Amino acid sequence: MKSINVVAVPENPSKALEAQLAHRPDVQDLVDRNIIKDPKVAPAIQQQRDELEKRKIEDSLRHKIDHRPSPETLVEQNILKDPKIAPSLQRHQLDLERNLLQDTLEHKIQERPGPAELVEQGILTKEEVPPQ
User: Fold this and answer.
1) 95-115: per-residue pLDDT in tens?
2) 3-state secondary structure of 60
3) Where are the transmembrane segments (predicted)?
4) Does 118 map to a domain?
5) Would 3 be classed as within a structural domain?
6) Do 50 and 59 contact (CB within 8 A), yes or no?
C-alpha cells in the first residue's frame, strides 16, 4: 500500500504568503551573500567580470607556482627536512644533532675561564669580579 504525504494548507494562504514575503532578505543582502548577481549590472558584463576574475586568479597562482622556491632552498632554510634521509630516520638525526650541540655547549661552559683568569688576562678588573 502506498503512503500518501498530506500537506497542511493554511486557512488563509494569502496571509501566510505575506508573512513569508515580509521576512525574506532584500536584494542587496542576496547580492552581498553571493546568492544572486547584481541586477544593476548587465549579465554580459557580469560574465566578463567573472571571467576576468577567474583569469586573474589563474595568473596569480601560475606566477606563485613559477616562483616558488626549490626543495634545496627549503632544506637550506630548515623548512623541509633533507630528502636524502629516510623519514623514519629524520627524528633520530634531529635528536642526535641536539645531543651533540648540548654536549658541545656543556664542554665549553666547563672549559670557560674563571674570574681570576679573566682578571689576569685583563678582561675584568678586580672591582668587576662578583663576590663569592
Assistant:
1) 999 999 999 999 999 999 888
2) helix
3) none
4) no
5) no
6) no
